[in-house]
Amino acid sequence: MVSRHIYWQLIFRILLISAAAMGSGFLFFDEQYVLSVLVFGFLVLQTVFLIRYVNQTNRKIAYFFDAIKNEDFTLRFPEKLSVKSLEELNHSLNMLNAMIQDIHLKKQAQEQYYQEILKQADIGILTINPKGHILYANPTVEKLLNYRPLNHIKQLNQVDEKLYGLFENLEPFESKTFQLTNEREKIQLALKSTSINLEKESLLLVVVQDIRRELDEKETDSYVKLIRVLTHEIMNTITPITSISESILKYFKKDGQLLTPDEFAEHHMKSTIKGLEVIKGQGNDLMGFVQSYRTFLSVPEPEKALIAAQNLLEKIKLLMGGDSDWEQIDIEVIVDPGDLELFIDEKQITQVLLNLGKNAQQSLRHQENSAAPDKASSDESEKKGQIKFLAGIDPKGKKIVKVWDNGPGIPQEHLDEIFVPFFTTKNTGTGIGLSLSKQIMRLHGGSIEAASKENTVFTLTFD
């Protein structure tokens, strides 16, 4: 409606100017000079009115946009005018101003709402631009880093030089841990970063969390699990020793008195010898158990060197393939990229991979033994065991080695227990293999994880 009125106003004024111009020219050539001058004056007057009309409209629109740009919503245009088109224009501009003001207020309320959530959050949050300026930091992160207000990451140099170096070199999608020590306490911090784009500027969003409680809970849980396993193993060893010792003592006593050699029966002597042999065997088992514990605690620092992943995995395949009992198991090595190298202690990682491979073999053997003969498949490829050693690079750019098998898998309830020292679901073995493997990976600065659904996969990740 507004544009239509302005449109007709412009057409009407242009037509008047055109008519005045033609009339002034006609009268001039008809030698009616007085009338020609009067009509020309009317032409000039209409031209001035047109310019003023257009300028008035443009100024209003310019004022309106300047006010919006400066977030000034107090600008109001009069709506009682003699010119209908300008009155409707002013009314439309006032309505648009009210709508934008309403949207702006809602946006501010929403921003305050989100900021309040961030202020009350238990985790620290901050955003950093490429120049190191901290654009936002909630109170929690200022408390965790023991510095306020945070405006630039260089301020962290006053807290801890290593902390500043960590933030300075932090890349998107990285996860780091850092122990911050101050005059009051030690804080274990976990940092996670991600990249975000805001107004065409790339920012780094960093989440900082105090994980002391989680670490304490995990440590306590690990101790509980370890004590449970130790108690179980020791009790299983000590109980037969105690029972047999009591039985042997009965052979040498009668009514609380020691028997003389003449009273001691020959079959009691034989039973005593057998009992002592059992006690010796149980003692040796207990010594072996303690030795396993000492082995777990005394893993040497790795002597790292660059090792070709292809050569390493081919060596593991050769070591496993030498057992004639495993001819029915396919062992495959896949390395991508082919020239992948690992910075590792070759002996220690060979021990880890060989342990995982043998666990997979035993799982496949158990599957074969437990399969019913009448349910055997006629397709040899379907029932044949498979083990795959895969090396490559994960989406985060870290080098990984996976050990995959198509065995029956690990029960879900045992997945959280398998890395606990001396925990085992097998009838043989000490249960030290996986926990020792985890210790070796920790010394390498990496990790080992297990997943078992349709198939079992152990993943070794190297930093």
TrEMBL record:
Predominant localisation class: membrane
Region described as Disordered: spans on this chain: 364-383
Record's catalysed reaction(s): ATP + protein L-histidine = ADP + protein N-phospho-L-histidine
GO molecular function list: ATP binding; phosphorelay response regulator activity; protein histidine kinase activity; protein kinase activator activity
Location of the protein in the cell: Membrane
Domain annotation Histidine kinase: ranges: 229-463
PROSITE patterns per UniProt: HIS_KIN, PAS
GO cellular component labels: membrane
Source organism, top-level taxon: Bacteria
Protein name: histidine kinase
Species this protein is from: Pricia antarctica
